[in-house]
Amino acid sequence: MLLKLDNPKVLSDVVSIISELVTEVRIKVNKEGLGVVAIDPANVALVSFKLPVSAFSTFDVQEEILGVSLDSLRSVLKRCSIGSSLILQTEEGLLKIEIFDKIKRTFNLALINIDTEEKVMPSLEFICRVEMQSTDFSQAIEDCSIVSDACSFSMIDHKFTIEAKGLNSAKSEFSSDEVVIAGDKGKAKYSLEYLQKFVRACKLSEKAIINFSNDYPLKLEFKQRDFELAFVLAPRIESED
User: Fold this and answer.
1) φ, ψ of residue 65 in degrees (nearest 5)
2) Domain 128-217 architecture
3) Are 70 and 114 in contact (CB under 8 A)?
4) What single DSSP character describes residue 241?
5) Domain 2-110: which CATH class?
6) What does 8-46 look like in DSSP terms, one character per residue?
7) Most CB within 10 Å of its CB: which of 28, 104, 127, 210?
8) How far is residue 164's CA from residue 117's CA, in Å, rounded to a whole number?
9) Looking only at Cα atoms, what is the longest distance across the chain?
10) What span, in angstroms and rounded, lies between the C-alpha atoms of 229 and 85?
């Protein structure tokens, strides 16, 4: 396997975000590109990342599965600076990472066996879809985190609302003038602990795509020409006393 990235910043940023959810992953490399699908230890959140062949300046691989420690990989990728290029190779149980800038630096990471089933993105159907500016979505989530540990997403009368209630409350309301709204009436509540980790991806894409239904998992997507990043989050169901 020989892969070269002339701009490794996206890979570095995404690995840093995913490492907030899981510590080890299988990286699948095949003719379509590089991909990761992983579920957090609590089985509450799933993350999917795709880096297509077009993102690489060199792509020589049949198919490989790389088990890696994300903490180790994140630390190495952080050594890349603006203008760096990156080469990834496998040899004898190692992931060899070469960083080229003013000098050539080489790191060898031990590949690990991850004894879990291969994860896949679940097939989900949603009744609500919202496309909005990532910065607006991030601000709404941060507003809610000030007052509660969970927030609700709701759609009614062509308005999308993100709201949190506790002793105090916070609410952001968006009309079809500000965001692209599609679908029917729906409402669900989600953990802000996870959402705050997800919105770190807002800096990678101008748009956030939010998919949800009544008391149903959330799918949050960030897409650019050279990558796709998606999160699925289980809803928080309130018990009735």
Assistant:
1) -115, 120
2) Roll (3.10)
3) no
4) -
5) alpha beta
6) THHHHHHHHHHTTT-SEEEEEEETTEEEEEEE-TTSSEE
7) 210
8) 36
9) 64
10) 22
How far apart are alpha carbons 127 and 66 in whole angstroms? 36
Helix, strand or coil, per DSSP, at residue 218: strand
Residues 6+ apart with CB under 8 A from 144: 151, 162, 163, 164, 170, 172, 192
pLDDT tens digits along 163-208: 999 899 999 999 999 999 999 899 999 999 999 999 999 999 999 9
Residue identified by tokens 């009436």 is 185
Q: What is the pLDDT of residues 21-42, one digit of tens each?
A: 999 999 999 999 999 999 999 9
The residue among 2, 22, 119 whose CA lies nearest residue 68 is 22
Sign, Cα dihedral of 16, 20, 23, 24: negative
* CA pair distance 152, 120, nearest whole angstrom: 26
- Give the long-range contacts of residues 32-35, CB within 8 A, separation 24 or more: 33/59, 34/3
- Distance between CA atoms of 178 and 173, rounded to whole angstroms? 10
Domain range list for the chain: 2-110, 128-217
Burial environment of residue 110 by CB neighbours within 10 A (0 to 12, 13 to 18, 19 or more):
exposed
pLDDT digits (tens, 9 = 90+) for 105-159: 999 999 999 877 788 999 999 999 999 999 999 999 999 999 999 999 999 988 9
Beta-bridged to residue 50, according to DSSP, are 35, 228
